[in-house]
Amino acid sequence: MTDNLQNFSAALPDEVTFTWKAPGNQFGDSSYLDITINSDSTIDGQYDAWCIDSDRSLIGATKGKVFSSYEELPPELIGPGNIEKPENLDSLNWIINQGFVGTELLGENGDNLGTITYGDIQRAIWSILDDVNITLGLGNFSEERAQRIAELALTQGDGFVPGFGQKLAVIITPDETDDGVFNPDKQFIIAEVELSKLGNFVFEDTDADGIQDAGEEGIAGVTVNLLSDVDGDGEIEANEIIDTTTTDANGEYHFTVVAGDYKVQFEQPEGFSEVSPSQQGGNPEVDSDGLISDVVNLAPGEEDLSIDAGFFNNIEPAGLGDFVFEDSNGNGIQDTGESGVEGVLVKLQNPDGSAVTDGDGNPITTTTAADGSYSFTGLTPGEYKVMFVAPDGFVFTTANAGGDDTVDSDANPSNGMTQTVTLESGDFNDTLDAGLIQPAGLGDFVFEDSNGNGIQDTGESGVEGVLVKLQNPDGSAVTDGDGNPITTTTAADGSYSFTGLTPGEYKVMFVAPDGFVFTTANAGGDDTVDSDANPS
Questions:
Q1: How far apart are CA 181 and CA 233, in angstroms?
Q2: Using one digit for the tens of pLDDT, what is the confidence trace for 110-126?
Q3: CATH number for region 440-511
């Protein structure tokens, strides 16, 4: 056996109530007994079960004390008429984890001894734990098979300890007198209770956000303690350590335990000055649980690999900021001579777009200085976005133009939000900028040139419903945010306009309505009253 097997016993209930049926063919594998534990305990459920002492009756048993087969048992359970060979309980655990029933058994010389029955198993258990020979209730069994199983158990099962996914022999000792004195008076029962597991990971939380991010590595050699309610006062306290392990090279750890309530305690490793904030982000699989976890309740056979701890060291505050500028030429780049914009509201955001808040729960914001600069300092390392609010009369310029992040605009034109940036300890990101433009516009008039001189003369009326298209200098269509060409039609008086345009170069294309052609272009020398449409 291993040196510390308290995690197989500390969380077991002191006493349970149960019902039983024989033979055990109601659920699970075929066994000598089936028992159902129903006492609001951590091991409530249905189990295959066996008897320990062949000369005790089970009739009338409904409640009993509970023990692990790997703990030091009270002297009342040891000796003639009780557990006569407690030194063989490890071999008993080996037997119940072999899946023997229904398989073929070979003798020492390789001869086939037939198919193993539950009676063979029960007879073998009595043989290794009890000196009395009895065959009551064994059904179809073979003494030869039973003794072969006992022989194998004593040789191969010596020192056996079950692991996760295997079963622990839990001893139930019925005591029906209820006189306050421990005096087992019925057959001792072995219940096959599947072991549980909890663990998982200790990591270096480089951005101190309490979450295991991609690239954050495990910390090896961290001491991890398993806690249980050793004194039975209903509270699991920091000094109630039942097992200890250390994290492996990957930062992982685990404990194999019997079903019950536990906490996990992490000892702060050398070289790490801070403990990560607990239970951040809403995903228990990747958060940090602090130096002592909340209570973990494990059912039989359950695996909980969500108990983690993050540590970091020498974290220095981080910051970000830069500049809001008026993009006079609308090219999305801070060109020489383009000035900053004062008084622009800037909001600090989380990656999901929610507001970063201060200690009082207020959103963290600032406004740009006279030169257009802004900054957020004293930040916990982590991931952030910035949201700029365009002042009246301005819209955002094109984002991420040119390829130089130090002079481009990062604000999404539709909502003013930048990309997410990651700040490590001591970082200051000075590349988050926003370019603002004052929207431009163009337009005028489509008229019927009655005298054909190419000039809007007095009395010449506008033409309604003429299709007008906004074009790029190369003649391609200017499109909206959904990729649709931007067009309009003339009003009743022949007027049209395009507004809210990014400063830049544009053309206009007029589509002559049926029955009309274009007049002479650029006649007269006064651009305010001539026709600009190329007749061709």
A1: 21
A2: 999 999 999 999 999 99
A3: 2.60.40.10
